[in-house]
Amino acid sequence: MKTKIFLTIVLALMFLIDAPSVLAQEMTKEQWQQEMSQFTAKRNDLKSKLDKLNGDIKNLQDQSKKLDGDLVACNDELLTLLGITQAEYDAFISELNGYESRVNELMRLSDEELLKYRDEILKMNGRVNEMAKHKMALIPRINDRLKKLQDNIASLMKTLDKSKTYTVGTWAKDRDCLWNIAKKKDTYNNAWMWPKIWQGNKDKIKNPDIIKPKWVLKIPAGTELTKEEKSAANSYYKKKAEAAAPVQ
User: Fold this and answer.
1) How do residues 99-112 score in pLDDT, each as one tens digit?
2) How far apart are CA 227 and CA 237, in angstroms?
3) Around Cβ 122, how many Cβ atoms within 10 Å?
4) Same-domain check for residues 146 and 114
5) Which residue of 76, 163, 178, 215 has the smallest Cβ count within 10 Å?
6) Residues 139 and 92 sit within 8 Å (Cβ to Cβ)
7) Same domain, 128 and 98
8) Last residue of a domain, one of 160, 186, 213
9) Residue 221 belongs to what domain range?
């Protein structure tokens, strides 16, 4: 039984192996020539289409090269009219690229993380506003980039200004000091966060031990002190300790 099955499989394999040759033998010379002619015609047609595509690509490349040249010439003429050297142009664009890249990075930060870069954002805002008044801003494409950059910086500054506020009461009635204000539940509920209020209101608070009634203080967002806020607090505690130390 096993032998018959084996022979059957062998015969089947032999038939499959020989099948193409049998089919080939059945194709006449005329049929073969006809198929070859069809394949040749298809090949020539595809080659013709490929040659046309390559020609179109070459024409487009030539047009692009010419347009690039025209753009460079136009840009050179524009710089000449504005009285700007190529070196000045390159430096301006490099600075603009840097600000655009940095603002994109800052826009990906959370509101709390963004607060750490308040000074940088304010400084950058001032510089970009200066750039917007430069002769380079007369070039439309650069003016568009500057406007977009200003809008993005304005958005960052709006986020910085989302802080809550607190109106200072009197010591006699409200016992208001930075420590007690930070301790309130609707601020930080944590007295040790007082340096954040101090650093967020440096325009008003010169001495953290002195705040005045009716002052409207910003309560910056965040649940932890930044590196700069911790440094300010350490400096304050150090001065306090030195002042309290007995004179030798």
Assistant:
1) 999 999 999 998 76
2) 15
3) 14
4) yes
5) 76
6) no
7) yes
8) 160
9) 164-242
